Structures are given as structure tokens and as C-alpha cells.
């Protein structure tokens, strides 16, 4: 199994990248999340997941190790293959996808192309109890504008703990009004004191 590849980005499209390392060009499937973080011709490091099939060895690359972990958790669900997981990571940010799973929001998952009611429910049931972590979890948002990801992630975590939606949103908003540069963990702790 490969952990990561480091080299020059020889080619880049929204669905794949070619990384030249040691004189060899490696064709790597990527998500739109990873695509937005890469620049052609520059040095790049991608975390890899290798899928071995009868007819091919396929590499999937991710700009963040946490995105790769979410991909691996998604493909562990029966009925979700690598192509579907990549579409999911391209359709929603990792934070939004994780939030939807943790909150049990089947409607958000169903809005992704190729995901039906049963698959969405299976994803929620299989992954809701696992510790899902999205890229950037715990990082503070920029000064002056709270990251939507921090708000969503904190709200999703509190909803998963069983707190009512209205009270949770109000508590999270109150904590962010006090200081909008807090990490997800700090927002959750502050909101728990208000609930």
C-alpha cells in the first residue's frame, strides 16, 4: 500500500492528476476538493489510496489525509464504491458531508448524483457512530467572519448528542457572536455550557 506521492504536477483536470516522481508519471484519480488545492507545474503531495482489481491497479489521491480517511470510510459501506465516494467528495465539502452523516440528514446525501434513499440511509447507519473528521476540523476560522464549516460542524456534533435543533443553533450562534475565531471544539464546549 502506498501512503503518499510527492513530485511535480505534470497534468491536472478536475477528475485526475498526473504526478511525476522519479521519472515516472502516476495517473491519480482525484475529487474536486483536491483539484481546487493543486496548481499544475508545481510540487505536490497527494495522500494515496490504492484499489487493486482484476483488470487494473487504480490510485486515488487526496490533498488532505482526512479527506482520504473519509473516502475510506465511505467505501467501507456496502453499495458505495470508489467512484461513488469520489462523486460524494466532489459534490459536497468534507465538512458538509461529515455533518450530514453525523446529523443523519438523508435528504442531503440523496441530493448527490447516484445516491438513493437506501444507500443514503445505509451510509448514515454505518458511519454515524464512527468518529468522522473533516479536513480543517478544529481550526479557527478567519478573523471577522466565522467559517461556515465551524458553525455547521459544531451544530452537527451537538445534534448528534441529542440536543434539540433550535436550541443548538441558538447556543452555537451565541458562542460565535462572542468570538468568531474559535475552533470547533471551543464552540462545542461553549454551546454545551449554554444548553
Helix content: 40-55%
Mean pLDDT: 85
Given helix and strand content, the structural type is: alpha+beta
What is the count of DSSP helices, taking H or I runs of 4+ residues? Answer: 9
* Spatial sequence of strands, sheet with the most strands: 3-2-1-4-5
Kindly give the count of domains.
3
Terminal residue distance:
45 Å
Radius of gyration: 18 Å
Topology pattern, helix = H, strand = E: EEEHEEHHHHHHHH
- Main sheet summary: 5 strands, antiparallel
Instruction: Identify low-pLDDT runs.
Output: 134-146
| CATH fold node name of the largest domain | DNA polymerase, domain 1
Shape: globular
Q: Tell me the number of strands.
A: 5
CATH homology-level superfamily of the largest domain: 5' to 3' exonuclease, C-terminal subdomain
Strand content: 15-25%
Oligomer: single chain
CATH class of the largest domain: Mainly Alpha
Provide a quick synopsis of the model.
This protein is of the alpha+beta class and about 200 residues long.
Amino acid at each position: 500500500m502506498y501512503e503518499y506521492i510527492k513530485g511535480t504536477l505534470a497534468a491536472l483536470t478536475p477528475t485526475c492528476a498526473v504526478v511525476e516522481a522519479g521519472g515516472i508519471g502516476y495517473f491519480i484519480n482525484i475529487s474536486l476538493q483536491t483539484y481546487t488545492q493543486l496548481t499544475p507545474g508545481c510540487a505536490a503531495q497527494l495522500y494515496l489510496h490504492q484499489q487493486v482489481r482484476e483488470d487494473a491497479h487504480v490510485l486515488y489521491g487526496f490533498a488532505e489525509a482526512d479527506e482520504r480517511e473519509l473516502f475510506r470510510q465511505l467505501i467501507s459501506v456496502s453499495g458505495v464504491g470508489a467512484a461513488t465516494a469520489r462523486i460524494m467528495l466532489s459534490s459536497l465539502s468534507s465538512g458538509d458531508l461529515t455533518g450530514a452523516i453525523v446529523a443523519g440528514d438523508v435528504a442531503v446525501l440523496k441530493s448527490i448524483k447516484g445516491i438513493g434513499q437506501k444507500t443514503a440511509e445505509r451510509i448514515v447507519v454505518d458511519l454515524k457512530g464512527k468518529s468522522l473528521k473533516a479536513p480543517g476540523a478544529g481550526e479557527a476560522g478567519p478573523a471577522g467572519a466565522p467559517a461556515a464549516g465551524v458553525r455547521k460542524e459544531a451544530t452537527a456534533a451537538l445534534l448528534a448528542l441529542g440536543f434539540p435543533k433550535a436550541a443548538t443553533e441558538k447556543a452555537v450562534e451565541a458562542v460565535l457572536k462572542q468570538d468568531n475565531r474559535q475552533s470547533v471544539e471551543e464552540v462545542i464546549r461553549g454551546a454545551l455550557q449554554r444548553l
